[in-house]
Specification:
binds ligand BES, binds zinc ion
Length: 506
């Protein structure tokens, strides 16, 4: 799809459909919507009077313009309550609008920038959010359907802005939005791949291709190299599978002497639970257990285009967790790459094992910051539902930076504690640590386990078990505008965090 920014008057630019907006409770439309209403002799005001347009978030009302203005149709999309309006809402609105129009067979779309002006957002942030919402909203995950059920496609999306002074900011925002949303969609495609087509070596191959295309450094450690280094935690997880594991390493280099941020993403391409096997219900969803890794791959790829002034290393431990004859077992004691020993209580807590070794790799690389992202615990999804990623960390400043990055990326995060007292739950009578605590507070003990491997380096853990995928069309988790499947969560937050840490606030 082509994305353009045009200076001009929205009523004069031709398109199959023009998107304008309305806040909830507004009785006479203002701004650009008001101008279109006047050009249409009060047709939007009439929709409001008849309560067909109430301004409720993502509500749609479609008009035909019969040649009164250049666009053939006008879609009035609801912005919701003005007091609740933010960048999350901008993305939802933009995404919901184009999804609605695509179903109607619309090919060319013009739009105003929702919220630039009225909503108190900067034109750049708002334009970025509009483009992101549009590209994310139009993504479809039905990659293996052999007959097209819905072949409609939006071919061109044009933001029309009448204020010349705002154009450079709108253009910059649109450019960033395109980079970030394309990256997130590519991460979604990796996540949506079925587990027979997304093994650790295939994930590594895809990372290599992204690295070549965008100019990132690429390296992969195979089993032999991992054994030489002593990465036994990662190797143990892979033991029960016929598929060999990989440690995928990507590098974005800004220059010598600059700080390095390490992103560590769980790349578990299928989590059966291993010997501690999961129930069959919903086990197929465990193909999404690698989306943390996918987020890291495509956050680095976006950064290769956004070019922050900070070095970034991406580490993706990739494996399957299977109950094969040589699988690791409850009761096993494993010596991790860091030297710490872990008693395995359940083989289903495999993510923290592979992350432990990858985090140790980041520490030994001299990372100044570590952020890991993982579908780590069902507990986190139970605690926060499908719209909030749980974050935990050892450094308040980094937690705040990540929270700001998430806010501007329109991804919702919630800070959970790492209570020192809960560390007792990880005490083992035979080894340094057990790999799980009690059932209660499972997200927190997952975080506490990882903390044992980061030392004093500023670190944040993102538990995306609840936000990684959405099952319902337009359902929760999809935030109302995403197709079923992987959500691409984390790509934009990680990229924005690197921008912020480098002193550039995209
Ligand atoms: N991959 C799962 C976590 C998960 C659950 C992700 C649901 C997405 C949706 C992880 O490896 C796992 O099995 N975690 C266990 C941890 C427990 C054994 C401490 C869990 O959540 O039950
Ligand atoms: Zn898992
Ligand atoms: Zn598991």
């Amino acid at each position: 799809m082509e994305i353009r920014v045009l200076e001009g008057s929205i009523a004069e630019v031709e398109s199959d459909a023009l998107i304008v907006n309305l806040f909830e409770g507004v009785t006479s439309p203002g701004g650009a919507t008001g101008a279109v209403d006047r050009a249409l002799d009060g047709m939007i005001a009439e929709l409001i009077r008849s309560k067909e347009a109430t301004g409720k978030l993502m509500e749609t009302a479609l008009l035909h313009t019969y040649g009164k203005i250049a666009p053939k149709r006008v879609l009035v999309i609801g912005l919701g309550k003005s007091g609740e309006f933010d960048l999350v809402a901008v993305r939802k609105v933009a995404g919901a609008a184009v999804r609605f129009l695509r179903k109607k067979g619309v090919r060319t779309v013009t739009s105003i920038v929702h919220g630039a002006g009225i909503g108190g957002l900067t034109p750049r942030d708002a334009a970025r959010a509009v483009v992101e919402g549009t590209i994310l909203g139009l993504y479809q995950g039905d990659i293996y359907k052999t007959s097209e059920e819905d072949s409609n496609e939006v071919e061109a999306f044009t933001i029309v802005e009448r204020d010349r002074a705002k154009i450079p900011d709108v253009e910059e925002g649109a450019r960033e939005g395109r980079i970030l949303a394309d990256a997130a969609n590519d991460a979604r495609t990796l996540g949506n791949e079925p587990p027979n087509r997304m093994t650790p070596s295939i994930l590594s191959q895809r990372a290599r291709e992204a690295a070549e295309r965008f100019g990132l450094g690429f390296e992969e450690l195979d089993e032999k190299r991992m054994a030489e280094l002593g990465m036994n935690a990662l190797l143990s997880v892979a033991q029960g599978s016929a598929q060999p594991p990989r440690l995928i390493i990507l590098r974005y280099t800004a220059g010598d002497g600059k700080p390095t941020i390490a992103f560590v993403g769980k790349g578990l391409t299928f989590d059966s639970g291993g010997i501690s096997i999961k129930p069959q219900e919903d086990m197929h969803l465990m193909k999404y257990d690698m989306v943390g890794g996918a987020a890291v791959i495509h956050a680095l790829r976006a950064l290769a285009e956004l070019k922050p002034d900070i070095n970034v290393i991406g580490l993706i431990p990739a494996s399957e967790n299977m109950p094969g004859g040589s699988a690791y077992k409850p009761g096993d004691v494993i010596t991790c790459f860091s030297g710490k020993t872990v008693e395995i209580i359940t083989t289903d807590a495999e993510g923290r094992m592979m992350l432990a070794d990858a985090i140790t790799y980041a520490v030994r690389e001299g990372a100044s910051y570590v952020v890991d992202i993982a579908t780590l615990t069902g507990s986190c999804a139970i605690a926060l539902g499908n719209d909030f990623t749980g974050i935990m960390g050892n450094n308040q400043e980094l937690i705040e930076k990540l929270t700001e990055a998430a806010r501007s990326a329109g991804e919702q995060v919630w800070n959970l504690p790492l209570p020192p007292a809960y560390k007792d739950q990880l005490k083992s009578s035979i080894a340094d640590l057990k790999n799980v605590g009690s059932r209660y507070g499972g997200a927190l003990t997952g975080g506490l386990f990882l903390q044992e491997f980061v030392g004093d380096i500023p670190w944040v853990h993102m538990d995306i078990a609840g936000t990684a995928y959405t099952s319902k069309e337009d359902g929760s988790g999809g935030a109302g505008y995403l197709a079923p499947g992987a959500t691409g969560v984390g790509v934009r937050t990680l990229a924005m965090l690197a921008m912020r840490l480098s002193g550039r606030s995209a």
